[in-house]
Amino acid sequence: MKQEESSTKDTKLLFRQAYDYIVTRIELGEWQTHDKLPSIRMLAQELRIHRLTVFRAYQMLKQNGKAYVKEKSGYYVSPGNTQQVISEHPESHPVTSSGFLKNSLAEIQQVPVVYQFSQALIDPNLLPNLYLSEYVKQVFDDYPKLMGTYSNVQGDEELCEFLCRYMKESHNLQLSVSDLLVTTGGQQAIDLISRVYIRPMDPILVERPTYSSALDIFRQQGARIIPVDITLGGYDLEKVEMLMIQHRPRIFYMNPTFHNPTGYTVPKAQRKQLVELAERYHCLLVEDDAIHEMYFDEPPPEPMLTYDTNGWVVYIRSFSKYVAPGLRICVVIGRPSVITPLLTAKSLADNGTPLVNQKLFLHYFESERMRQHLKKLRIALQVRKEIVEEELKTTGWTWDSPKGGFNLWLKLPETLPVEGFLNECMEQSISFIPGIICDPLREMRSWIRLSYSFINEEHLRSGVRRLANIAERYSVR
């Protein structure tokens, strides 16, 4: 019975994703108004799905006014569905956008508010800014021609050699420079991997919930997203194996250490088993590890990369969020067979992360001051987390207290509609992340992500109190 229910759910998900794929291509301008859409047979072959699934997607397009039918001819794009950004003065600027890009997280974070609970970044006042500013001069003294030089695409050789030593000391990993690619932040790494390894309607496994910008990147590539629930105890590995057998996913994107948005950490035993499953079913594990050093008591388990012997893990280790966010330094680690195709994508994206940023990061990160900074930062973050938890005690909201990271994943009462609550909070200069944008199924309407890392302690208390008061008033309506 459970298998039948699962199969029905998967079919519904597939037909909906086929619909989303077609709509995205229309909105990107690939199919214009009154253009004929591919035949059901042709699109089914292209997407490697059943013709009935494509037929259901086309029927939904027709019902929603996205397409119309010409008898004995096929389906055509309805007027008013292609989205182009047109200049206010078209006569002087005739070039229009070919479509649209979506980043739900950025749309919320770009709204200026006083209480910024949507930013999973470090409060700039917690960073050693004076030391960093002094260090800039030293770096330019050491590298007087720095501003007139490009980095190579793979990354500054000196930095890559240091990172190899760092991963050896931290995780006992034997790496060479050819195993690394330096990117301009973790999000660029996800985007490059998506461009290289995901084709339209490729099945991929993604945690539910997950990092919302990653979801937007995967949707932009036309991926067929298959959700995997993550809980306080990790994953249901029997279900993961069943999904790998059934769908043969290209990748499994995961954030197993201080997971965004939940704060969960996948236990050590599961990490080894997941690598074994990836090897068995030829699924590339994309391990996103953005805040590994931000633990409160005990360090987290070793990355899955440490269990990988056959090249089925690509590891994204970002240092942007807690070292110096303005430098945007991240490293992608994997076998040369995985990294080499990414080099071409990186060369097309920006031809290499700025060399100035890499040199500044290198000389700061290997310093004793950096180690002292990390210790102080962990204490400050734990204090801020405890302040928020203390202020939320009387709300009736529920959460699992994380052992590290920047966020609380909060379950609100069903009677509190989060979308309206967010709008009300924005008007009161408070922002947070609604759970629905972190959910591949777009169903988690009673959850929110609250980041405690970006606001100072005084504003943290007053901001959470205001948030709770707004929720209480809004629930009464």
Automatic annotation (TrEMBL):
<dbReference type="Pfam" id="PF00392">
    <property type="entry name" value="GntR"/>
</dbReference>
<keyword id="KW-0808">Transferase</keyword>
<keyword id="KW-0805">Transcription regulation</keyword>
<keyword id="KW-0032">Aminotransferase</keyword>
<dbReference type="InterPro" id="IPR015421">
    <property type="entry name" value="PyrdxlP-dep_Trfase_major"/>
</dbReference>
<dbReference type="InterPro" id="IPR036388">
    <property type="entry name" value="WH-like_DNA-bd_sf"/>
</dbReference>
<dbReference type="GO" id="GO:0003700">
    <property type="term" value="F:DNA-binding transcription factor activity"/>
</dbReference>
<dbReference type="InterPro" id="IPR051446">
    <property type="entry name" value="HTH_trans_reg/aminotransferase"/>
</dbReference>
<dbReference type="GO" id="GO:0008483">
    <property type="term" value="F:transaminase activity"/>
</dbReference>
<dbReference type="InterPro" id="IPR036390">
    <property type="entry name" value="WH_DNA-bd_sf"/>
</dbReference>
<dbReference type="GO" id="GO:0030170">
    <property type="term" value="F:pyridoxal phosphate binding"/>
</dbReference>
<dbReference type="GO" id="GO:0003677">
    <property type="term" value="F:DNA binding"/>
</dbReference>
<keyword id="KW-0238">DNA-binding</keyword>
<keyword id="KW-0804">Transcription</keyword>
<comment type="similarity">
    <text>In the C-terminal section; belongs to the class-I pyridoxal-phosphate-dependent aminotransferase family.</text>
</comment>
<dbReference type="InterPro" id="IPR015422">
    <property type="entry name" value="PyrdxlP-dep_Trfase_small"/>
</dbReference>
<dbReference type="Pfam" id="PF00155">
    <property type="entry name" value="Aminotran_1_2"/>
</dbReference>
<dbReference type="InterPro" id="IPR000524">
    <property type="entry name" value="Tscrpt_reg_HTH_GntR"/>
</dbReference>
<protein>
    <submittedName>
        <fullName>GntR family transcriptional regulator</fullName>
    </submittedName>
</protein>
<keyword id="KW-0663">Pyridoxal phosphate</keyword>
<dbReference type="InterPro" id="IPR004839">
    <property type="entry name" value="Aminotransferase_I/II_large"/>
</dbReference>
<dbReference type="InterPro" id="IPR015424">
    <property type="entry name" value="PyrdxlP-dep_Trfase"/>
</dbReference>
